[in-house]
Amino acid sequence: MSPPDRDQDSARTMNRGDDGPPIIAIVGSTATGKSAVSLEVARAWGAEIVNADSMQFYRGMDIGTAKLPMAQRLGIPHHQLDTLDVWEDASVAQFQESARADIARIRAQGKPVVVVGGSGLYHRALLDRFEFPPTDPQVRAALEERAAAEGPGLLYRELASADPVSAARIDARNTKRIVRALEVITLTGKPFSSTLPTHQYEIPAVQVGLDLDYATLDARIDSRVAEMWDQGLVAEVERLVDAGLRRATTAQRGVGYAETLRHLDGELDAAQTRALIAQHTRRLARKQRKWFGPDARVTWVKAPSDAGDVARVAEDVSRIAGSLEG
After folding, report:
1. What is the dihedral of CA 254, 255, 261, 267, to 10 degrees?
2. What would the pLDDT profile of 277-293 be if each residue is shown by its tens digit?
3. What is the pLDDT of residues 144-167, one digit of tens each?
């Protein structure tokens, strides 16, 4: 497979007025084949890859995040992988700054960029106009104390009353995001949802989504969970506990990790744990599809049906990237 001729006019067309090397964002639900397709597209275009999956920022969270091992990366540089210890909090603002710097460096070398991952907010913060609302440590600390004392449920109900749009987008168990939303509402008097990015590029890109019917996706998720378990997910989580996973605000809530921690605590047996991971992964996949679905800038293609179909999808992505005009 080869990309279209990447002359200056082609690059300008692809990036809607940006005359630098192209940026191709591959988005969609977990388990649709984004990593495999991104590798093939990056190989064809001579591109480097920037990760936008928030759980893959964490060192040692490899099996449960389906992170590509180094040996499978085809020598293609990957950025924004393994940037945090498990006890650290992922920051959208920090990611925006560092990932945009990565993109600038890659393009200054004359290379295209492939952005890949299923974390919608991180994609949007990277590519779109997104200014971060104010923070106040005292306000946040007070909300965090309430969450610890009362549980996240009461705070979530307050958020649902004050800002139902944000509440609909935030998992009721995600204390970090609930606290952040209420902090912004307290400080600005405006809904947190009003601060979220709009569909306006700061860094123009071609976005291609991988689509897969839910029946096929669910079966693939079941297989993936079984494979992760066989590869040693439990042992990985045990190592991460030693590295500080239980002190984490974000990492210990990751799908696959939260459930396995419960298994280690004796709450769930192996079969129950695998079933719960699959259930939560299916729910995550649907949320990811709903996040990207309303964005009219995303062109959807059929996800690869198996490893042998990856080249076909990569061809589709390259064709779209080469022909899409703003």
Report:
1. 140
2. 999 999 999 999 998 99
3. 999 999 988 999 999 999 999 999
Q: Is 8-130+198-323 a domain of CATH 1.10.150.120?
A: no
Q: Which residue has the tokens 């008097």?
A: 189
Task: Enumerate residues 6+ apart whose C-beta is below 8 A from 263.
Answer: 234, 269, 270, 272, 273
Q: Taking CA 178 as the corner, what is the angle to CA 175 and CA 184, rounded to the nearest 5 degrees?
A: 135
In degrees, to the nearest 5, what angle opens at C-alpha 112 toward C-alphas 109 and 115? 125
Per-domain residue ranges for the chain?
8-130+198-323, 137-195
Distance between CA atoms of residues 134 and 190, nearest Å: 12
Query: Looking at residue 140, what DSSP letter applies?
Result: H
Q: How far apart are CA 255 and CA 307, in angstroms?
A: 24
- Residue where the block lists tokens 């991104």: 38
Do the Cβ atoms of 47 and 73 come closer than 8 Å?
no
In eight-state DSSP terms, residue 175 is H
| Helix H or strand E segment including 26 | strand 23-28
Q: Residue 24 in contact with residue 113, Cβ under 8 Å?
A: yes
pLDDT beyond 80 at 9: no
For the 137-195 domain, the top CATH level (class) is mainly alpha
Please say whether the dihedral angle defined by the alpha carbons of residues 159, 294, 81 and 221, taken in this order, is positive or negative: positive
In 10 A of CB 1, how many CB atoms? 14
